[in-house]
Amino acid sequence: MTKKYFYNYLFIGVFALMTSLSVAQVSSSTVPSNKATVVKAIEGLSIYPNPVQANGKITIETKTNESKEVELYNVMGKKILSTQLTTKEFVLPSTVTAGIYIIKIKENNASATRKLIVK
Questions:
Q1: Where are the domains of the chain?
Q2: Residues 119 and 76 sit within 8 Å (Cβ to Cβ)
Q3: In whole angstroms, what is the distance from residue 82 CA to residue 72 CA?
């Protein structure tokens, strides 16, 4: 009978110890840092057509229409391509096949991320 209680108390003790350790790790990792990063959104951003055909042309317009840095990522987060865009039109290369992608656009100090569907 005493063996039965011993293992119960041992289990409860180990569980309490592990819980307190994981709480300590979470509370120490959620301490806010003094470094604040503010990312401005791109004003008047429009990307069309979406969905786009493979090897198709995408038009990227903003309020200022300055040069942009365009990056394309797959859904796993791997960068597929990166290019500098000086016009409004962007032609997808043949390496971009049908699927869902994330397009990241940077213009001056502002950036935006959108979902892009390629048919």
A1: 1-31, 46-118
A2: no
A3: 6
- Rounded to an integer, what distance in angstroms lies between the CA atom of residue 113 and that of residue 57? 18
Give the separation between CA 45 and CA 65, rounded to whole angstroms.
Answer: 9
**If you classify domain 46-118 with CATH, what class do you get?**
mainly beta
- Which DSSP string do the residues of 40-98 spell out, in sequence order? BPPTT-EEESSSB-TT-EEEEE-SS---EEEEEEETTS-EEEEEEE-SSEEEPPTT--S
Residue 60 has φ and ψ, to the nearest 5°, of: -120, 110
pLDDT in tens, 65-115: 899 999 999 999 999 999 999 999 999 999 999 999 999 999 988 999 999
- 3-34: pLDDT as tens digits: 567 776 766 766 665 666 554 454 445 555 55
Decide: 111 and 39 in contact? Cβ < 8 Å: yes
